[in-house]
Specification:
10 helices, 6-stranded parallel beta sheet, 6 strands, single chain, alpha/beta, about 240 residues
Length: about 240
């Protein structure tokens, strides 16, 4: 099995640390680097270029958008699809305003200021004082650049509404959602799963947006259980 992890906005391999460690002996693994990607389509093509042959794509947040685009561009290449903390609608006016404000804030105060705010705002309220979670999350965001934020914000604002393409996804699909995700509400992620034929919806309790980091054991268990079942289905010839 060849697995490509697709990270979210201002994220790197840290966001998938628990999952990649658990799967290291079971699959060939690549983590997409979107630092130079200017569009969601660019990100999708970069993920598809990670390996030859059938791929399992695991996308978080922005990475989920890219994973869905990859499934649209190359449906025969994508054997399994996992989406975490991901929506499917085009950008709203509110989102445009918020992303513009975040970029202005970083240009004035620096990326560390945004890291402090986002780390607290994105996770479950009960975890905001959990240094074991918050410190690695903040450090990951601080490793990104203002230019990267600007580029990826533009990519997200230009993204298409994928609702019409979701019924065409034919591969086994898993949607993992933090029950208390403040950025992509669980109802949106439930609707995403409902729009993809046969998709499994797996809510993670007491969890905000960063499910792979906030609840690593639960996410990893859910992911491995689904991969085992999806792999058996793929090997039997049933997509």
């Amino acid at each position: 099995m060849r697995i490509v992890f697709l990270p979210g906005l201002l994220c790197d391999s840290t966001v998938f640390a628990a999952q990649t460690a658990a799967l290291a002996g079971r699959a060939e693994i690549a983590i997409a680097d979107f630092a130079a990607a200017g569009t969601i389509e660019d990100m999708a093509k970069m993920a598809l270029a990670s390996f030859e042959g059938p791929l399992t794509l695991i996308g978080f947040s922005m990475g989920g958008r890219a994973a869905m685009e990859a499934a649209r561009l190359a449906p025969r290449r994508v054997a399994r699809l996992c989406l975490m903390g991901t929506g499917f609608a085009a950008a709203s006016d509110v989102e445009r305003r918020d992303r513009s404000a975040a970029l202005d804030h970083v240009r004035r105060e620096g990326i560390a200021a945004l890291a402090r705010e986002w780390a607290a705002a994105a996770v479950h309220p009960g975890r905001r004082a959990d240094r074991a979670l918050i410190e690695p999350l903040r450090a990951m965001i601080e490793r990104a650049s203002t230019a990267q934020l600007a580029c990826h914000s533009d990519a997200l604002l230009a993204r298409p509404d994928t609702s019409t393409s979701l019924p065409g996804i034919a591969c086994p699909t898993l949607v993992i959602a933090g029950r208390q995700d403040p950025w992509v509400p669980v109802e949106i992620q439930r609707a995403l799963a409902a729009a993809i034929p046969g998709a499994r919806f797996a809510p993670i309790e007491t969890c905000g947006h960063f499910a792979p980091m906030e609840r690593p054991d639960e996410v990893t268990h859910t992911l491995i259980e689904w991969l085992d079942k999806a792999s058996a289905r793929f090997q039997s010839g049933k997509r």
